[in-house]
Amino acid sequence: MLIGYGRVSTEDQTTRSQQEQLTAAGCALIFEEKASGGDRSRPELAEALARIKRGDTLVVTRIDRLARSLSHLLEVIEALRRRGAYFKSLADPIDTSSPQGLFTLQVLGAAAEFERALIRERTKAGLASAKAAGRVGGNPGLRSRDPTAIARIRAGRRLAELEKVEASAHLWLPTVERLRPLQPWEVVTRAVALAHPSGGWTKEKLVRAVKRLVAAGKTTDILLTRAPRASRGGRSDDVLRTIGTFLREAPDLTLAELKRRLEHHRIRPPSLAAEWPISTLARQVSRARQLGLAPAKLLAS
């Protein structure tokens, strides 16, 4: 399915032209937004990305309607690639479902890496030049331990950390909001790491990120409430919740693929055997479906 995304920067602009182009291109669903291109926390874009499934294509009229920076563009395209989805710009030679489009994307990636390398080299050269001239680097207020300067720098760091979290929130926050607080953080972390592996997620890192978004009013504090206590089944219940999480993230998994994922994440059967017998896994999937933890779809072996 083709899913369109249109954006304008101000309230007095209209997305009508983009909507007409996206409709003509065959988009069955179109999301429209009025927001700055530099603002990565866009609810309509997040909703569009959340609706995309394997084989779908996100379509824009021009790449600047999606992103104003190359890093953001590549980040979104990489998130789509991990889902088995594609990206297409009508006015630019980018269509990741075609070899030519993939080549263009690789060129863009190489250009981004080259740009980062140039920035690193210029920074090193500038520091070396300052040192040779006898200039001391760093913030004078910090060197003198001025409380006002220290407070200002701490506030700046908190803002930078929040902006970094917000930049990727559209990739992982929908998963957190879907699972919390019904699922414990361990299960949610595994689901987020599976959907967004480049994030280097740990439970502690994910909780900190969510706390920053809650403090900034970007999401509800319900996510931070305590998960329901596990029932008498104990570890068996945790396994069922994990199986349900994997199947909701990827409903087309076969039993063999689910077995590989569980073993890759070192999640052992309730019997603590080293490997998952397919018959045991099938029973666990059936149990997860009965409890409403997994979609009611039969898996192939």
General description of the model:
This protein has 301 residues and is of the alpha/beta class. The protein folds into three domains: 99 residues, 3-Layer(aba) Sandwich (Rossmann fold); 75 residues, no CATH class; 56 residues, Arc Repressor Mutant, subunit A, CATH 1.10.10. The chain has eleven helices and five strands; from the N terminus they run βαβαβαββαααααααα. The protein is globular, with a radius of gyration of 23 Å. The chain starts with a strand and ends in an 11-residue tail after the last helix.
What structural class do the secondary elements suggest? alpha/beta
Spell out the CATH superfamily of the largest domain. Answer: Resolvase, N-terminal catalytic domain
Number of helices: 11
Low-confidence stretches: 230-234
Helices and strands, in N-to-C order? EHEHEHEEHHHHHHHH
Quaternary structure annotation: single chain
CA-based gyration radius: 23 Å
Give a topology summary.
Layout: E1 2-8, H1 16-24, E2 29-34, H2 43-51, E3 57-60, H3 70-82, E4 86-89, E5 94-95, H4 99-132, H5 140-143, H6 147-179, H7 185-195, H8 203-215, H9 235-249, H10 255-264, H11 278-290
Helix pairs in contact: 2-6, 6-7, 6-8, 7-9, 9-11
